[in-house]
């Protein structure tokens, strides 16, 4: 289903295709995930303990899927329809995490957005996730003007649920999420409302 996005949303997303970055803190920054990171992305997602939580991909994650994801990231940013940002270590430039932001029209005429993220195994436990979710949520509210942000997470992914709760998201029950190569799964739905729309 095609979503009609306001021109200011498309333009804000397109700035990342032109090299825009967001500083998360003194150690990390966000920028567009590109083909240059396909190998690093594959290294993150070939770990089954990480890929099992990603609904959109099969467990046997391969380099071609990483290349396709990175190509899609570049294409969607140029179109101004979706963002896949890499979180990079300022010193090493290593890919630490990936977060996606997909704005879409809501039934009430506003725009909502879905987020989802993955973090490289060696960066688990370093208190990156809450700051990452907070950073992208603030961007979506302030610059895109979305009315709410939602995220679905597998019922067993307690770490992700904890991160969303710490970031101010509220549990809105359960939903069915379509998966790639697996049966649809029951997931927990978390929502963060933009205070300007309250």
- Sheet with most strands: 8 strands, mixed
CATH topology of the domain at 7-143: Aminopeptidase
Strand arrangement in the largest pleated sheet:
1-2-3-4-5-6-8-7
Distance between the termini: 28 Å
N-to-C series of helices and strands: HEEHHHEEEHEHEE
Please bin the fraction of helical residues.
25-40%
Question: How would you sum up this structure, described in words?
Answer:
This protein has a domain at 7-143: 3-Layer(aba) Sandwich (Aminopeptidase), CATH 3.40.630. The longest helix has 17 residues, at 63-79. It has six helices and eight strands. The model has no long low-confidence stretch (mean pLDDT 88). A hairpin with a 7-residue loop joins strand 7 (170-177) and strand 8 (185-193). The two termini are 28 Å apart. By secondary structure, it is α+β, with helices and mostly antiparallel strands. It is globular and about 40 Å long. Helices cover 33% and strands 30% of the residues.
């Amino acid at each position: 289903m095609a979503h009609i996005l306001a021109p200011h949303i498309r333009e804000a997303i397109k700035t990342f295709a032109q090299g825009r970055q967001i500083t998360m803190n003194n150690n990390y920054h966000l920028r567009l995930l590109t083909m240059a990171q396909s190998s690093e992305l594959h290294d993150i997602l070939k770990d089954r303990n990480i890929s099992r939580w990603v609904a959109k991909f099969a467990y046997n994650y391969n380099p071609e899927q990483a290349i396709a994801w990175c190509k899609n990231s570049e294409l969607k940013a140029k179109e101004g329809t979706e963002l896949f940002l890499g979180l990079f270590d300022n010193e090493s430039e290593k890919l630490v995490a990936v977060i996606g932001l997909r704005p879409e029209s809501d039934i009430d005429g506003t725009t909502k957005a879905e987020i989802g993220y993955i973090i490289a195994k060696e960066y688990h436990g370093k208190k990156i996730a809450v700051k990452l979710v907070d950073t992208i949520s603030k961007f979506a509210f302030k610059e895109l003007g979305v009315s709410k942000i939602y995220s679905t997470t597998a019922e067993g992914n307690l770490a992700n649920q904890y991160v969303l709760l710490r970031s101010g998201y509220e549990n809105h029950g359960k939903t069915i999420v379509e998966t790639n190569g697996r049966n649809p799964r029951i997931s927990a739905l978390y929502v963060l409302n933009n205070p300007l729309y309250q």
